[in-house]
Design a protein that fits this description.
Structural class: alpha/beta
Number of strands: 5
CATH topology of the largest domain: D-Maltodextrin-Binding Protein, domain 2
Strand content: 15-25%
CATH superfamily of the largest domain: Periplasmic binding protein-like II
Oligomer: single chain
Shape: globular
Radius of gyration: 17 Å
Helix content: 40-55%
Number of domains: 2
Largest sheet: 3 strands, parallel
């Protein structure tokens, strides 16, 4: 039986594009992360990741699992609120993608404001090179992103913040 922990770690791998970076992000050893992927692939019966010296990318089946895992993990995160009732309080998981240079400036103040004004929000910040952020949005790896490219990708709703 597939566990939520396995799905969390698998999505971390796909998000990071690297077993080593994902292992560091979820605070487990890289060999354990490799074993997790091998066990998951064995249980499902398909190869989930293409491995290269530059990192990993999901196979077609891996991308399908990734998308499904995101839905399951979101439902699992919301389960507590469903059972306790939120009383009108804003809550849930929000995944935001930020370019590295902007993340350094925004993350600390953003976390402070969220903790004070919206304690029910679980913020996940994905720091990524600018060139990958639009793709992360289109593939629904993040819910919101700050893009620095001049030309937005089709299929994205873009609101200029600074000119």
């Amino acid at each position: 039986m597939i566990e939520l922990r396995q799905l969390r770690n698998f999505t971390a791998i796909v998000d990071a594009g690297s077993l080593t970076r994902a292992a560091a992000a979820v605070h487990i050893a890289q060999p354990a992360m490799s074993q997790l992927v091998a066990a998951l692939e064995s249980e499902i019966g398909v190869r989930l990741l293409n491995r290269t010296v530059k990192g990993v990318t999901p196979t077609e089946q891996g991308l399908a699992l990734y998308r499904h895992a995101q839905v399951l993990l979101k439902l699992a995160a919301e389960t507590r609120n469903v059972t306790l009732g939120t009383g009108g309080r804003v809550s849930g998981r929000v995944r935001i993608g930020l370019p590295s240079t902007i993340a350094v400036i925004l993350v600390a103040p953003l976390l402070k404001v969220l903790k004070e004004q919206f304690p029910g929000i679980l913020l996940e910040v994905y720091e990524s090179p600018s060139s990958y952020l639009a793709t992360q949005l289109l593939e629904e790896r993040v819910d919101l992103s700050i893009l620095v490219d001049e030309t937005p990708s089709s299929g994205l709703l873009v609101e200029p913040l600074v000119d």
